[in-house]
């Protein structure tokens, strides 16, 4: 991981630094403990920094300023805590004695004597005359010297000489014909010299105030059309505002590239791993989570399976404030290839392993470590629906997401529920995809389940949130994607659930709704106060009151390789990842195996990318954008070597125009109509081919059954028609005056 080293032009003695938690503990400069709002700086001995550089070498956070520290003349340097990130990082070091004195002097001048504050009433204004201060150099003279115009090239000297005898000699002029006398006329034509090309900055022009007058006449029909067009136009549209918005969005090409913001790499991993999935934390700024997997094929995994068991499979939490050390690491039984945060509680994470297992994590106990967030305090979305094992939809009044959907390579889509099933309610009944032997087993008694749960040993670092699911968790419902009459199946690779708010109807009166809602909320508060798992008794006592929603559609769509709406030419490199823009409906990003990202803008070009930008030297494995605010957007791009690149999206690629949504909708609707037209024409062409084939078959059958006289008569008619055409052509060309009649019988 490369460290940051910035030198500002206005303050050449200030060097920003990133100090990790370990470095803060070594030098006793911990944030909120050693550094406070009252004490924002500290003196650090030069020998201590040199000793740290000797011990930790390039790993030391002072390695970027190693040369500055060694050349520092004093014994102590000033380290300042940059709370507001004025210079870009969390600390900065003052590298000169002069800068150190200026910094300390500025702190003394800002402090007002306490004695004056005691004798001055608060409501009395006291005039303080301005005081002259000595000049303090902050490096501005260096800026002036750099901006001053100086000669950068050496002047060229020419020496012209002539013979002394020619000085003062008489000169005689006479006329010559330039065309007849050789070397008399020499043309000095102008040419463009690239070394002296000047850009025109200002130009004076004169214009007449009176416009040109033209006479135009038109027919009544055109005037009527023009009047009708004028009537249907909105006269209250501000054309200047729309023009400026369009030009600023699409016309400005100076800031259209993704800017490198930060990058993360796990330096402690002994195996070569790649990033398989990326997710931004829903509530914490600058916290991004990635899953990594070993870069091996299926055959190589089987070959090195014993070695892979000794290596942990991890999910890493990275923060903008510490680009070197992960904030949190989650272990899993095998490599994770996809994971997702719970929408109602970001402390719950669900992931899918390469071996087919589904894993749940509860990081509530570690929430304070990443951003001082308590359990359940960061509910971002409210769950409104839930389903049962029969596929019926119910209303979720608790507002807690307790179900998830997975898809796998065995052509199935499974629905899971993280709540414990009630005894005797079919909790142990398997789905219809299991064998008959499993269905024939009797359900265990509640006492046996309790005894089994008591015998499970819980490791000290594993929470007991989902202990009730261990060794007994099964899908609530399972759907197999079959192709119909054939035996071939479809393999799902990705799920996409809509996030639009759903309207649910409540059975009963409004007063009952309020009472039930208050009852549920009070139960959840009581469970949290008593530190009881809320998933154990979720909606207890309300199962008999909830009724299914009859008018809710439970259909979902499965996409296969159908006719595309947009198809480009064959790319030189394979596409490996992609994602739509979160704010612009006409922009999407496509990652390639050569490390480039193609940025498509459908409002600008539809046959090729608007631009391509190189991100890394290897294959891009995942793309995930994130919107922090209307003025700042980021995009996370992961590569095959396990590096996560964070780039800032420019304003032109994040802010949509006022009619971009309608324009993109119109484009897709037009392409859908075109696709339907192509499909219809394809059917029509196939029908025409069948008709032509039928006609040919009929003709062959007709020829086969005709007699010799009928065949000769048909040939005679065809030949007579040919002769008539030949005579008419010859007559039109003037080669024949009187058409002669020749029949087929004469030829015979």
Automatic annotation (TrEMBL):
PANTHER family: DYNEIN AXONEMAL INTERMEDIATE CHAIN 3, DYNEIN INTERMEDIATE CHAIN. Residues 424-453 are annotated as: Disordered. GO terms for biological process: cilium movement involved in cell motility; inner dynein arm assembly. This is WD repeat-containing protein 63. It is found in: Cytoplasm. The keyword Transferase does not apply. It comes from Cricetulus griseus. Keywords: Cytoplasm, Repeat, WD repeat. Residues 428-439 have a biased composition (Low complexity). Coiled coil: none annotated. InterPro entries: Dynein_IC, WD40/YVTN_repeat-like_dom_sf, WD40_repeat_dom_sf, WD40_rpt. It comes from the Eukaryota. One of its GO terms (molecular function) is dynein light chain binding. GO terms for cellular component: inner dynein arm. Signal peptide: none annotated. The keyword Transcription does not apply.
């Amino acid at each position: 991981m490369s460290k940051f080293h910035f030198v500002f032009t206005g303050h050449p003695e200030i060097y920003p630094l990133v100090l990790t938690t370990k470095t803060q503990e070594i030098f006793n400069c911990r944030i909120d403990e050693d550094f406070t709002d009252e004490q924002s700086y500290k003196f650090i001995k030069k020998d201590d920094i040199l000793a740290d550089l000797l011990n930790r070498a390039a790993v030391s956070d002072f390695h970027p300023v190693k040369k500055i520290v060694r050349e520092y003349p004093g014994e102590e340097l000033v380290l300042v805590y940059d709370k507001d990130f004025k210079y870009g990082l969390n600390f900065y070091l003052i590298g000169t004695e002069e800068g150190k004195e200026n910094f300390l002097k500025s702190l003394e001048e800002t402090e007002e004597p306490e004695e004056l504050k005691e004798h001055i009433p608060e409501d009395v204004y006291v005039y303080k005359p301005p005081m002259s201060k000595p000049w303090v150099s902050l490096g501005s003279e260096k800026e002036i010297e750099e901006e001053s115009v100086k000669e950068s090239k050496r002047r060229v000297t020419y020496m012209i000489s002539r013979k002394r005898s020619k000085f003062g000699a008489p000169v005689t002029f006479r006329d010559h014909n330039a065309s007849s006398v050789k070397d008399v006329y020499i043309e000095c034509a102008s040419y463009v010299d690239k070394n002296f090309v000047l850009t025109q900055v200002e130009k004076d022009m004169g214009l007449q105030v009176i416009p040109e007058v033209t006479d135009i006449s038109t027919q009544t029909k055109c005037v009527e059309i023009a009047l009708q067009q004028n009537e249907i136009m909105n006269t209250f549209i501000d054309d200047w505002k729309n023009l400026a918005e369009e030009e600023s969005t699409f016309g400005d090409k100076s800031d259209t590239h993704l800017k490198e913001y930060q990058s993360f790499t796990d330096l402690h991993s002994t195996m070569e791993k790649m990033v398989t999935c990326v997710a931004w934390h829903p509530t914490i700024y600058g916290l991004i989570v990635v899953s990594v997997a070993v870069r091996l094929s299926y055959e190589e995994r089987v070959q090195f399976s014993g070695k892979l068991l000794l290596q942990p499979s991890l999910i890493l939490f990275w923060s903008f404030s510490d680009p070197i050390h992960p904030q949190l690491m989650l272990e899993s039984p095998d490599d994770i290839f996809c994971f997702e945060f719970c929408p109602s509680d970001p402390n719950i994470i669900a992931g899918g392993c390469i071996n087919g297992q589904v894993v749940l994590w509860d990081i509530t106990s570690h929430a304070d470590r990443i951003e001082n967030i308590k359990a359940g305090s960061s509910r971002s979305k409210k769950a409104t629906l839930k389903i049962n094992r029969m596929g019926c939809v119910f209303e979720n009044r608790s507002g807690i997401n307790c179900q998830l959907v997975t898809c796998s390579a065995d052509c199935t889509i499974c629905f899971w529920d993280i709540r414990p099933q009630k005894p005797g309610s079919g909790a142990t009944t398997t789905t219809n995809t299991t064998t008959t032997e499993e269905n024939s087993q009797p359900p265990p008694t509640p006492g046996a389940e309790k005894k089994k749960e008591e015998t499970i040993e819980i490791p000290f670092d594993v929470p007991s949130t989902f202990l009730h699911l261990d060794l007994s968790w099964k899908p609530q419902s399972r759907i197999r994607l079959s192709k119909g009459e054939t035996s071939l199946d479809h393999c799902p690779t990705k799920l996409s659930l809509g996030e639009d708010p759903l309207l649910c109807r409540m059975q009963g009166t409004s007063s009952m709704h309020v009472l039930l809602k208050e009852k549920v909320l009070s139960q959840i508060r009581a469970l949290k106060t008593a530190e009881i798992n809320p998933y154990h008794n979720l909606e207890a006592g309300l199962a008999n009151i909830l009724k299914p929603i009859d008018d809710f559609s439970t259909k979902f769509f499965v996409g296969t390789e159908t006719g595309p709406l947009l198809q480009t030419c064959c790319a030189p490199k394979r596409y490996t990842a992609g994602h739509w823009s979160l704010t612009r409906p006409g922009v999407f990003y496509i990652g390639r195996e050569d490390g480039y990202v193609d940025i498509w803008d459908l409002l600008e070009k539809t046959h090729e990318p608007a631009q391509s930008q190189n991100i890394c030297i290897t294959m891009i494995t995942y793309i995930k954008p994130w919107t922090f605010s209307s003025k700042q957007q980021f995009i996370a791009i992961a590569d095959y070597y396990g590096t996560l690149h964070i780039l800032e999206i420019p304003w032109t690629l994040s802010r949509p125009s006022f009619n971009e949504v309608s324009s993109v909708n119109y484009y897709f609707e037009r392409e859908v109509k075109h696709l339907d037209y192509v499909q219809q024409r394809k059917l029509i062409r196939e029908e025409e081919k069948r008709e032509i084939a039928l006609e040919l078959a009929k003709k062959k059958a007709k020829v086969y059954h005709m007699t010799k006289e009928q065949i000769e008569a048909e040939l005679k008619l065809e030949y007579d028609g040919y002769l008539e055409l030949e005579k008419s052509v010859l007559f039109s060309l003037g080669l024949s005056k009187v058409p002669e009649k020749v029949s087929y019988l004469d030829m015979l």
